[in-house]
Amino acid sequence: MFIKFPFHYSLMNVDKIKLKDKTVILVGTAHISDKSVELVRETIEKEKPESVGIELDYQRFKQLQSPKKWQNTNVSEIVKSGKTYLFLINLMLSNLQRKLGKEMGIKPGAEMIEAFKIAKEKELTVELLDRDVQVTLKRAMAFTGLREKIKILMHIVSGFFNEQEQLTKERIEELKQQDVMTELMNELSATAPTIKKVLVDERDLYIANRILESKSKKIVAVVGAGHVEGIKKALNQKIDLKPLNVVPKKKSFIGTAVKYGIPLIFIALIVYAFYNKGINASVELLVLWFLITGVFSALGALLARAHPVSILVAFVAAPFTTLHPALAAGWFAGAAEIKFNSPKVKDFESLNKLDSVSSFYSNKVTKVLIVTAFTNIGATIGVVIALPYILSVLA
Fold first, then answer.
1. Reduced to 3 states, what is the DSSP secondary structure of residue 3?
2. Where is pLDDT greater, at 110 or 173?
């Protein structure tokens, strides 16, 4: 159990919590607010804690410190490992925050860097409280269904490319208020409950337990305002954090059935056509499959403005990869794009400056990923159209 003491500075959003063996000062911040930076400094100066905790993992902490955070990106590995969508979403979220920060005239995460800076000045222990961002994103992808993924993707894309909506400084400060953040969390819970569970609830529990694990008797923890209430509740729940660091292997019966079912159904149709209508019918089905899946895969690559060779590769690869559970047409088209439209150093350097549709297409790194993603989508549409059409031909 803990006792909450009323404790509010002029800038608010500070909660002082007395636990059995330590005192926790939670500082709720808006990640792109200059007042949050002031609040962090003011709190640490006044409280004189033994340690300062920040809502970052090691990877994001290094990214905030380095303006060249994307330069070590291995595009080939992203394409081969099937992480194209995950990387694009991560990149879009990062640039969305940077874009909003630019409007406010402040660097995103400045309050976290300020907390680190002050802690170093005062020779205090710095504790990274958050879970590895890749684990969080992978768990979110593993637990979330297709419908929910589409909802979240649409929200991210519309938020990123909506040039009309301007976020004012006053609105940013509103987001620091507890009632507004609670409302936002409730909205997320209603529209995407699985995402909310992984991105918010699990991290609240994780951060709270990292605070409980701290050896410091007095710790100032700098976290996003939307996490404050959840962390306060989770400070009563001492748990083993290992399960929250595990990325589950997705075992979807429907997904497995589709992967292996499509080639089996197609082979069955070919055999059926051969025995009932002759070899010409079987050849006709093969040609239809090749043309439909190939054309739609190539159209996907064309929409991504791929190199002509990449489009040709997409056309040739799709009829075969759509019948193989472990392959994807986009991998081959993406590999061709890397070969014939190879990213340059300047493309990696500008990954944190993308702010429009055209910038994603003009940057050769994201261009490769878009080609990969669109080719895969086109091939999938081709399969959805090809199977019913073949059935209608056999009828």
1. strand
2. 110
3-state secondary structure of 164: coil
Q: pLDDT of 292-316, one tens digit each?
A: 999 999 999 999 999 999 999 999 9
Average pLDDT over residues 336-354: 74
Task: Write the DSSP symbol of residue 344.
Answer: -
Q: Is the pLDDT of residue 170 over 70?
A: no
- Cα distances from 46 to residues 105, 281, 316, in angstroms, run 27, 82, 67
- CA separation for the pair 168, 253 (Å, rounded): 46
Which residue is listed with tokens 């768990």? 139
Please check whether residue 315 is in contact with residue 299, taking contact to mean a CB–CB distance below 8 angstroms.
Answer: no
**Radius of gyration of the chain measured on its C-alpha atoms:** 25
* Confidence (pLDDT) at 66: 64
Please write the tens of the pLDDT for every residue from 7-26: 333 344 789 999 888 999 99
**What values do phi and psi take at 224, rounded to 5?**
-65, 145
Side chain identity, residue 81: S
Q: d(Cα 74, Cα 220) in Å, to the nearest integer?
A: 37
Q: Which helix (H) or strand (E) holds 26?
A: strand 23-29
